[in-house]
Model the fold of this input.
Amino acid sequence: MEEICKNTVEALKRRGFDAVYCATAEEASSAVMAEVDAVQRVGMGGSVTMKELGVTERLNESGKLQTRGADCDLFLLSANAITEDGRIVNIDGNGNRVAASVSGPGKVVYAIGRNKIVSGGIDAAIARVKEKACPPNCIRLGKKTPCAETGKCADCDSPDRICKVTAIFDRRPTGTPTTVYVVNADLGY
Ligand code: SF4
Done:
């Protein structure tokens, strides 16, 4: 997986992102916390990855975590999927996470585990989100959706549906400095 992670880093750079390879989760955690140490106000989308990296706990202790939106110096998140050719895909229910990752914060920082990397382009990335991310997230959040019961997407009309906004990043958004840490470890889902 090291080669695939490094390929993804180089592809992200070609797309205008600042991108860094991290060999371990510990390395990624230190890198993200160094970003946190450099600012005062931090925002974060719901992220199992950040929790697994220990960032959520340390942020809560620091008192710097102030918002789930874009009004911050630094916004932290992961991705639901990333293509090996460097495109990031995130799908939200209410859209605050994707909105904050596009515009508003002083800087955006992603930590993305190797398990989120797909070959096969955007269709494969969206399929990964529907198959691997949404069902466990619905279960985690107590949503009553078909995928929470069966593990499979039914393109549902459920009021609890969490797939409402899809963001595809073909390039770094203009005016939003963005660093992506690609981690050679399984993180989140
Ligand atoms: S559309 Fe509905 S069933 Fe499909 S992944 Fe999203 S929440 Fe689950």
DSSP finds seven helices and ten strands in the chain. The chain has a mean pLDDT of 94. Residues 121-141 form the longest helix (21 residues). Strands lie at 18-22, 42-44, 65-67, 74-77, 81-83, 88-92, 107-113, 117-118, 165-169, 178-183.
